[in-house]
Amino acid sequence: MTSMKTSNNEQVKENINEIDINKKDLNRVFWRSFQMEFSWNYERQMNLAYTYAMIPILKKLYKKKEDLSESLKRHLEFFNTTPHIVTLMLGVSTAMEKQNAVDPNFDSSTINSVKASLMGPLAGLGDSLYWGTLRLIATGIGTSLALQGNILGPILFLLIFNIPHIVLRFIFTRLGFKMGTGFLQNLQKKGTMESLTFGAAILGLMVIGGMSASMITLEVPLKIGSGENATKVQDILNNIMPGLLPLGAFGIMYWLLGKGVKATSILLGIALVGIFGVWIGVFG
Q: Which of 1, 10, 83, 240 has the fewest CB atoms within 10 Å, i.e. the most exposed one?
């Protein structure tokens, strides 16, 4: 019994070596991954684009029409994660499909099980890293230049966000295929995924804090007293803590959004407060 199992394992290894998933195949998956939100739908979200990205691999692995059809249907199940990090999962799926193609004892249902279990942690990491950190850094640098009328503002925004994102997307395709499922599952079990997500979230909040202090202008036009000896209320607030009003305004808007207040209502309120402030400054 043991010798039969050993011979089966050796046969599986031989079959795996015969199927060559090369750099060209992984590059095709990488380029197709950019379509991830083009066909997003409310029922299964990224499933069509995920299947589209896997087609070159599946056609190479499954020569029988029935096997190819089954593999395509398998990836049409619900899937959703941060699009910029999806290549890591695509690489893992490629490794698992390769194993499934050569091992008759492989449980193909585990392919979707792994996708379902890891898309949440990957989304948490991706959202914190790309949306919560990298985009804010790019926005802060780009906006500060754009406000000065510098054309480099929008250009730097696009470069700072997209160059790291595209490089990491490319690397993740190969990393996911090379490491397979074991690498990501170990990260999740050890709590490393949660630590990375938490760290990226902290960095993102630091960037938001710096932007709110340096890029939000909010002043009180009131004065205490009259003539040259009058004391500006804004000077008193600055002596208490520079950027106190922008911090307070940001905190109020954050609280309102958390309470479900619509962004349009908040913007209308800001406009009314601004008009009132100008009126006080002119006629006060």
A: 1
Residue 42 DSSP label: T
pLDDT over 70, % of the chain: 78
Tokens 């208490």 belong to residue: 240
| Per-residue pLDDT tens over the stretch 209-263 | 666 666 677 777 677 777 677 778 778 877 887 777 787 887 888 788 888 888 8
CA atoms within 13 A on the CB side of 169: 22
DSSP 184-211: HHHHHHHTHHHHHHHHHHHHHHHHHHHH
174's tokens: 């190969």
The tokens of 218 are what? 């909010």
Output the six-digit token pair for 188.
């999740």
3-state SS class at 70: helix
Give the DSSP H/E element, type plus range, for residue 257: helix 244-258
Residue 58 near residue 72, CB atoms below 8 Å: yes
Spacing of C-alpha 76 from chain mean position: 22
Average pLDDT, the chain: 80
Q: Is the pLDDT of residue 2 over 50?
A: no
Sequence-distant (≥ 6) Cβ neighbours of residue 146 within 8 angstroms: 153, 154, 157
Q: How far apart are CA 165 and CA 201, in angstroms?
A: 17
Residue 142 has pLDDT above 70, yes or no: yes
Cα–Cα distance between 161 and 149 in angstroms, integer? 20
State the average pLDDT over residues 22-41. 91
- Spatial separation of the C-alpha atoms in residues 132 and 118, rounded to whole Å: 20
